Amino acid sequence: MIKTSRLGLRFLEKEDIAYLHPLESDPEVKEFFPDGTRDRAKTEAMINRFITAYTEKGLPCFLLFDLDSGEFIGRAGFGLTEAGETEVGYVLHKKFWGKGFASEAVTALLEYAKKYIDTDYIIAYAVTGNIGSTRVMEKCGMTYYKTDITKGIECRFYRIKNR
């Protein structure tokens, strides 16, 4: 488990559908995600993809919990973009938005990446207009480097040197 001042991050497990399905099926939470909401079957498939990404490529996904209350906050982790770049991303329940949890989680994951992920850069992107996610990337030291289309939607891309 990774711990920050307020968060506990633990590796995703197959049984975590109970945590992730309500998060992944919430239209407000998934408003800026090109893939949109996921039903239970698509959430299970996503969990399987995340577990495979970790076992085959060393790119983990974590569940985020409030250390004080034990409450489930969301998920955060790594993946590969369509262009083969290593990305960091997160999804939080609405009640935790605007409280610094996303920045805290991404900062912890960027530190994790320096030790365990062999790549020159870690990237992140957000749909153009998603000001909250843009602020998270900037607060975590990531620098804007391009605007591009991904999954059919215009996004702003940020990156940070990893190695």
Automatic annotation (TrEMBL):
Keywords per UniProt: Transferase
Query: Where's the N-acetyltransferase domain?
Result: 7-163
PROSITE patterns, per this entry? GNAT
Q: Organism's domain of life?
A: Bacteria
Q: Which InterPro entries match?
A: Acyl_CoA_acyltransferase, GNAT_dom, N-acetyltransferase
Per UniProt, what is one Pfam family of this protein?
Answer: Acetyltransf_3
Picking any one GO molecular function of the record gives:
acyltransferase activity, transferring groups other than amino-acyl groups
TM region positions: none
Protein name per its UniProtKB record = RimJ/RimL family protein N-acetyltransferase
- Organism expressing this protein natively: Aquicella lusitana
